[in-house]
Design goal:
Blueprint: H1 2-21, E1 25-28, E2 32-36, E3 42-45, E4 49-55, E5 64-71, E6 75-82, E7 86-93, E8 99-104, E9 108-111, H2 116-127
Parallel strand pairs: 7-9
Antiparallel strand pairs: 1-2, 2-3, 4-8, 5-6, 6-7, 8-9
């Protein structure tokens, strides 16, 4: 029991460090976009993208409840349910005002980067795949 508890404690510590220090990446793999982070990954098929918007004033004014992931004063990371948006995937640094909103057939993805220029570059990349 003690060994199992120690292993669980080490695993939780590693997961917490990964969430805080592994950056979010967006990669174009031809037919889809892959979003990777220290906690969870998402793959969005280009044909499933309904719209892409750059929200200049942060996340929409609605209640988001975490279903699986991390939510603290710095970031929202993981799976959430929005009061109006429905099922969401969040990769959001709260200190940044610009957030990309990607509506797909299954859920909505919100993402940004600590670097505003990187967020803008991702938006331009995603906008090209919009129908």
């Amino acid at each position: 029991v003690l060994a199992g508890t120690m292993i669980l404690l080490v695993w939780v510590c590693i997961m917490m460090l990964r969430m805080d220090f592994v950056p979010v990446y967006l990669a174009d793999s031809g037919s889809s976009f892959k979003i990777t982070s220290g906690y969870t990954n998402t793959e969005i098929k280009k044909e499933d993208i309904k719209s892409v918007k750059l929200l200049k004033n942060g996340l929409p004014e609605e209640h988001f409840s975490k279903t699986n992931g991390s939510a603290d004063e710095k970031q929202l990371l993981g799976k959430f349910d929005g009061a109006e948006s429905g099922k969401c995937r969040m990769y959001v640094w709260l200190e940044q005002s610009e957030v990309i909103q990607i509506k797909t057939k299954k859920y909505t993805v919100f993402m940004n980067n600590k670097d505003k220029d990187q967020t803008t570059a991702w938006y331009e990349q995603l906008k090209k795949a919009e129908p």
